[in-house]
Amino acid sequence: MSINFSVLPDVTPDENAITILNVRAYVIKSNETETNTGGSADYHSQVDGHWIFGTDKWPIANPMSLYEKYKSRRSTWGIDAIGSVIAEIELTNGIKGVGISIGGQPACFIIENHFSRFLEGQDPLNVEYLWDLMWRSSINYGRKGLTIQAISAVDLALWDCAGKLRNEPVYKLLGGKTKNSLPCYATCYDPLAAKNLGFKGAKFPLPYGPADGDVGMKRNIQRIKEIREAVGDDFPLMIDCYMSLTVGYTLELLELIKPYNIKWLEEHLPPDQYDGYAQVKKQNPSKTLLTCGEHEYTRWGFKLLLDKNCVDLLQPDVTWCGGITEARRIVALASAYDVSIIPHGSSIYSYHLQYAFPNLTMGEFIFLSPNGDSISPSFGQLFNDEPLPIDGWIHLDPYKPGFGVTLNRKNLYRPYPRDNQSKSI
Fold first, then answer.
1. Kind of pairing between the strands at 363-366 and 182-187
2. Signal peptide: which range, if any (predicted)?
3. Which range is least confidently modeled, 71-85, 96-110, 409-423?
4. Which CATH architecture has domain 20-168+408-413?
């Protein structure tokens, strides 16, 4: 029996409330600009030879690795095809909030031509209400992937506005800090470089998958052995499989890596293979932890992972899974199962979430220098003041409101302006 007795009236801003004046969505001006300014994480254009696309010596196993034409470089099949979406929300008092996700021009179209109707004129502090409107209105074409990434960008911009309105960092709006600084591990090509820079562990990509047969498996173990010998016995090492393996291959790999003290094996199967993840966890022959969640979306996807006992650790990306509003629900859900969360690297957006909750114990920092052995900003040149780890620790400034960063507007382009608004900044 339903407990709803009436349709809810419209939510309207309180009298004299500061409201949302305008919603804008940008991309980086050109592929050349994105390449030259360092891209953003691993879904963007990078210079030729960048480690994150795979190298001649060590490719990166991925879902397209079984096709020879697309095997050698992840860029050949378009890991960099979509690029960033930058959502900007301007309030009636002039405050601007910024959120970033993957989605490029398609996400810009959704934000400008669909979600803007629910946002403009509303109180930006009503984040639960605004998230629900975007989610419910896009169920018919969304629920996962690009649509949720568009919602994420808008949601993050709303939280940035909220922090600036309250003149406080976002982590204080979420309940305050549970740690004074955040330890980080590095995702990189050279774990020894990460160790030398003070990081608390390092993750590297698995080179070969099932299509490479026994020879590929031997080369995987060779790579793992070389890295372990380079960093020593006690430095924590993790392996990213990037959705490329099968159940049987994963179980064999887990058996073979037992001598090398691998902390966790990440995203070994495609994200929708929940039963496969559960089977691997049940039959895991090693002490290596099993993780995934980078390419999962919303609380419902993560509830499946938890209910089916698929993983030891969850890794939502705050810029993809639904923004801060949805991420904090996922965090609460995981805490009820006593499962820790280490978000996929999303820089400032995950740092604030991790400061605020005790079951988020460590951050991920991706080395985006071409050689994969040094520190550079996660978002390239999109921000002027993105915090970077020092000796493997992130420190957030308690006096910087919102997410504490300033958008660099130099290389942005607005593909779908409304009401004769300009495409320029």
1. parallel
2. none
3. 409-423
4. 2-Layer Sandwich (3.30)
Instruction: Answer whether 0.85 is exceeded by the pTM.
Output: yes
Q: Give the tokens for residue 100.
A: 């970033």
The alpha-helical segments, DSSP class H, found in 308-382 are 323-336, 347-356
Which residue in the list 44, 268, 295, 344 is annotated as catalytic? 344
31 touches 81 (CB < 8 A): no
* 79 CB-near residues (< 8 Å, 6+ apart): 42, 43, 53, 62
CA-CA-CA-CA torsion for 332, 334, 339, 344, nearest 10 degrees? -100
The helix-helix angle for 298-307 and 323-336 (nearest 10°) equals 20
Q: What's the full length of the chain, in residues?
A: 425
Domain boundaries, the chain: 20-168+408-413, 173-394
* Dist CA 272 CA 148 (whole Å): 16
* Terminal-residue alpha carbon distance, the chain: 52
CA distances from 275 to 253, 269, 291 (A): 19, 10, 14
> For the segment 128-177, what is each residue's pLDDT rounded down to a tens digit?
999 999 999 999 999 999 999 999 999 999 999 999 999 999 999 999 99
User: Which amino acid belongs to residue 388?
Assistant: L
CATH topology of domain 173-394: TIM Barrel (3.20.20)
Active site residue 352: no
